[in-house]
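Problem 12. The chain below contains 149 residues. Write out its predicted structure in token notation.
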Amino acid sequence: MPEKQTMKRAEKDKREGKAPTTQAGEFVREEIHHIREGKHGARSTKQAIAIGLSKARSAGVKLPAPSAAKTSQKTHRAAENALKRGRSHEDQAPKRASATRTALRHEGHAAASKSALARQARSAARKRGTRSLEVAARKAVRTKKRSGK
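Solution.
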């Protein structure tokens, strides 16, 4: 179950008319924080992001499932199920939730490190093309904290 603050931030984004991906970003952010504070781990940064997106769908964010052509059938089906859960407001079975939590506790915490997230962002931007990578780099320079002195 997502935290109240995350839900509030996502609701605020929705009221402001922001895209579903922006709303879902709040859930991904929460997941990264969970991994960093040691609540559980993740095998990879991609998995951490996927968990956040799944939570967003289950919470009712109208984020479409990735197309079956772009992802594996298993991933597509899981996303569809999360969407259904979001529409019907049904929770995950307690036994299943407990098993998932236990499995994630055994995973590492490096997936939420700054370098791992940067690596993931860079590879995702590269897939979108050179122009996209350039725009992301310019934004990073604008929003980067000023160094030292």
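Discussion. The two ends are 42 Å apart (CA to CA). Students who got a different answer should revisit the alignment rule from Section 12.3.
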